[in-house]
Predict the 3D structure of the following.
Amino acid sequence: MRNIIVAWLAALGIVGGAEAQTWPAKPVRVVVNVAPGGVADVTARVLAARLGETLGQPFIVENRGGGDGYIGFEAVTRSEPDGYTLVYAPGSTMMIAPHIIRRADLDPVKALAPVAATGRVSLYLVVNPGKVAASNFAEFLAYARANPGKLNYGTPGNGTSPHIATEVFSREAKVKLNHIPYKGAGPALKDLLGGVIELVLDPGIGLPHVKAGKLRMLAVAGGQRHPDFPDVPTLEEGGIKGVDGGPHFGFYAPAATPREVVERINREVLKAMQESAVLARFKALAVDLAPAMSPAEFSAYVKAESERYAKLLPEIGVGK
């Protein structure tokens, strides 16, 4: 009996190795769990196109936004755990939103296996100049403090990185802003351009409109100034600390996906991340690359960030 069990386990290892070698033998579905038009959607499509070119199978991107990320997560957790259905998600939907919107039937941290981290956004304090007369960050801060509750800010949704970052900003800057959640960064940007809201912490998709003069950038929530806007200071230069773009985006697979397949996908994504065309596109979007992580390292990162936000959210009054 012992010999039979050993042989059976060895066979499983052989099968798993064979699956990893043959993957992908058919098209791969990549579910993006946020609306089209945001940085997560754009970076997913950049990587999917490159993976399709190098691996010889289409990587088909499908947006399943809404439900604070759960709609996309649910679509993937119900799929076969074979590496042919993945979810590409902003870190906020995996490590922040589940602490705000809890579902007893679906815990994404348990139901999904982290595969590969890709990058995270810097955030830019951007205003509609027709609605906010401030020409620089100091003027904006003075106006916001003098007019508590009169400015509306948009975000891609509750629990997203821009939402949490703006609440941290409000706490540190001692201002009161009204939160207007949208179903993605694209819809929030549209309403900012239309003057429906006054400001956003934009993940980068609004920069062309800043260059065109339709919007005004007042500060950068990141470690350094943007090279295309050298005169715009960081929030830290303005005395506001602790505001950042949140956890890294990444690929996830159903939890039961064979380890060998997860590792193969990880290797292919990390290779794609080093391609010059991919790097150039990420740089244009002002996305900070994630350090190269194995699936195990990415899993540890997800766990640690989830625990960090579980402590932070009550401190800033989010999710109560």
User: Anything to note?
Assistant: The mean pLDDT is 91. The CA atoms of residues 123 and 203 lie 5 Å apart.
